[in-house]
Amino acid sequence: MTILRVENLHTFYGQIEALKGISLEVNEGEIVSLIGANGAGKSTTLKTISGQLVPVEGRIDFMGDGIAGLPAHKVTEKGIIQVPEGRRIFPRMTVEENLEMGAFLRKDKAGIAESMERVFTLFPRLRERRMQKGGTLSGGEQQMLATGRGMMATPKLLMLDEPSMGLAPVVVEMIFETIQKLNAEGVPILLVEQNAAMALAIAHRGYVLETGTIALEGTGRGLLTNERVRKTYLGES
Amino acid sequence: MAKMDAKTNVGAARITPVKWALYGVLALAAVGLPIVFQSMHNYFMVRIFGLMGVYVMLALGLNIVVGYAGLLDLGYIAFYAMGAYSGVIIGSVGVKAFGQGFGPWAYWTLLPAAALVAACTGIALGTPVLRLKGDYLAIVTLGFGEIVRIVATNWSQLTNGAAGLPRAGQLVPSPAGQQWFMDHFTKGNFAFSSDLWWYYVIGLLCLVTVFFVRRLDNSRLGRAWVAMREDMVAAASVGINITTTKLWAFSLGALWGGIAGITYGYWVGFISPESFNFFESVLVVCMVVLGGMGSIPGAALGAIIIAGLPEIIRYVGQGGFIPGITASMGANIANYRYLVFGLLMVVMMALRPQGILPSSRRARELHPEDEAILEEESAEISSASM
Predict the structure, then answer these.
(1) How deeply is B329 buried, as exposed, middle or buried, from its count of CB atoms within 10 A (0-12, 13-18, 19+)?
(2) CB B5 to CB A94 under 8 A?
(3) Residue B135's pLDDT band (boundaries 50, 70, 90)?
(4) Is B153:B86 a contact under the CB 8 Å cutoff?
(5) What secondary structure does DSSP assign to B89-133, as a single string?
(6) Looking at the complex, does the CB of residue B368 fall below 8 Å from at least one CB of chain A?
(7) By the CB < 8 Å criterion, does A70 face chain B?
(8) Residues B132, B77: Cα–Cα separation, whole Å
């Protein structure tokens, strides 16, 4: 079943048309990756879905409701949780407080405690550092925290914007493993990545963006073996 | 230590025996000192105590906007003016409509009205500046403060312009209850004055303010403010409504300005645009910053020091308390009081930027190691978004 359907999305930054008619879908249980070069419109797509940007044209349907143009907090209420680019944790809050903020819209104390336990099980490192300030964590730990904060909201769709950015290869691998684990628990994931090889390797399906339009789409494996993708995004000749 | 930081500022609220003793002494001083001054016939100091109370309310109100929500407001005095003007104007309309009998009740019934007017003014200011932050926000709020003052100066039919209110031949009525205290607590040489009565009313209002602001600090709204202050995008992504959260900060902050305003107007019995100039806004910001942003005891202490210190310097200088200092030398010292005050601000900000009694969280925010982290982080973000 399709849970997110984006149709013909057009978004502008001032005069510049960043998205020129993007259409994509996320189905239940899927990991969907958006790859592409800098400025292709990957992050803009996520930001438009999450309500940080307002589209000029197009539809965004989430579980049957039109959500295009809703403010960010309303989109969060619907269950679409974005883990923003650059992690954007709360630097002077402790790890635990950061996670509590993730559950801002929830009132079920027992459920919140349960979710936190789940985050700590998935990221044991965060449990060790639960009283440490977010800003003092390493880049990888901050990405774990940002992802964990997203999980605290019990997402119906988790959107990750460049989770591998600025992280060591070992850490990136670990983050991607966690994304797969989360997905295995039933959370659909929309992933934006510059690291095309890893993003396609874990994706059920993928889209390749070029200057605001969708150039290619297919299964993760299919795109990985596509000649054009191999040349342009995987650095093979 | 670590655990107590886990919730906004609850840690600071843990009361130890030492704190109890300290609060006891402070309460005793707050209740007793004005009586001592009154019985010494030092009416000037009694008035200074009342004034310090008014500024405590203002500083606590501004602390919501600046300290909690992290929005720099350089026109806060506009809300003070709105409270004072709406209180006095509606009061005189009320007396016309309901007769002199309404007079004594004007202050009591209009206290919530003035608070509401100020809160609505807060929303009126907040709505157009929703998208602004930092320097730009500060400049617009500064302009807003000036607009209110200039309107008060020029809308003569309503405000009587620079001549102030009430108009010649009218009086701001004394509130019900005041006369009773003055009659029953005047014993022999000791006169329970209207200033002393107002001082206690202001003191009670300060207590209400502290109670309310503390509840806010530990509330959901308080947590939303902290999150918004730290990172607006992240706050929105966890489901915080940035628009309403900001407007709550402006209106709840303004509300206390309005209460302070009507109280000042009915106490002093005269208001004019001169009382609400830009310098007053700056003073209130200084109180919050000097005391410690985001800290209730800090804001209160800042207000007491800044409102009280220049006057106390003047009083000590002129009073001949220090042997060898004559009245004329004292008058000279008193003339330098703003210099002393300015130096104090410079030294404080250089040596203790987090304020005298900082909130535990704000102290962390100004910790040097944090700055390093933040710089590194913002460099990372900006290089990544290139």
Answers:
(1) middle
(2) yes
(3) confident
(4) no
(5) HHHHHHHHHH-GGGHHHHHHHHHHHHHHHHHHHHHHHHTTTTT--
(6) no
(7) no
(8) 20
DSSP codes, B334-381: HHTHHHHHHHHHHHHHHH-TT-SS--HHHHHHT-HHHHHHHHHHHHHH
Question: For residue A13, with 0-12 CB atoms within 10 Å meaning exposed, 13-18 middle and 19 or more buried, which class applies?
Answer: exposed
CB contact under 8 A, B234 and A84: yes
The rounded distance, in Å, linking the Cα atoms of B309 and B317 is 12
Q: Shortest CB distance from A135 goes to which of B242, B361, B373?
A: B373
Pairwise CA distance, residues A65 & A57, whole Å:
16
Instruction: Give the contacts of B29 (CB within 8 A, at least 6 positions apart).
Output: none
Residue type, A42: K
**Rounded CA separation B56/B50 (Å):** 10
**Residues in contact with A209: Cβ distance below 8 Å, sequence separation at least 6, in sequence order:** A22, A34, A35, A36, A40, A41, A42, A45, A215
Residue B12 has a pLDDT of 47
Q: How many A/B residue pairs have CB atoms within 8 Å?
A: 97
Tens digits of residue pLDDT in A36-70: 988 899 999 999 999 999 999 999 999 999 999 99
DSSP state of B190: B
C-alpha distance from residue A163 to each of A167, A224, B300 (Å): 8, 20, 45
The predicted pLDDT at position B11 comes to 45
Q: Is B134 left (phi over 0), alpha (psi -120 to 50) or beta?
A: left
pLDDT band at B37 (very low <50, low <70, confident <90, very high): confident
Claim: this prediction has a pTM higher than 0.90: no
| A234 contacts A196 by C-beta, under 8 angstroms | yes
Instruction: Compute the distance between CA of residue B28 and CA of residue B50 in angstroms, rounded to an integer.
Output: 16
pLDDT (0 to 100) of residue B68: 92
> Is B242 in CB contact (< 8 Å) with chain A?
yes
B3: chain A residues, CB-CB within 8 Å: 131
Chain B residues whose CB is inside 8 A of the A93 CB are 226-227, 230
Q: What are the chain A neighbours of B235 within 8 Å (beta carbons)? A: 101
Buried b (16+ CB within 10 A) or exposed e, B166-186: beeeeebbbbeebeebbeeee
pLDDT at res. A233 = 83
Place of tokens 């800042």: B302
What ipTM, to 2 d.p.?
A: 0.87
Tokens of residue B211, six digits: 């109670």
Q: Which CATH code for domain A2-233?
A: 3.40.50.300
**Cβ within 8 Å of A, B 185-224:** 220, 223-224
The reply to whether residue B223 touches residue A104, judged by beta carbons under 8 angstroms, is yes
pLDDT tens per residue across span B282-335? 989 999 988 888 899 999 999 998 888 877 777 777 665 666 667 677 777 767
CB-based contact B6 A86, cutoff 8 Å = no
CB B264 within 8 A of CB B58: no
Q: What is the pLDDT of residue B38?
A: 85
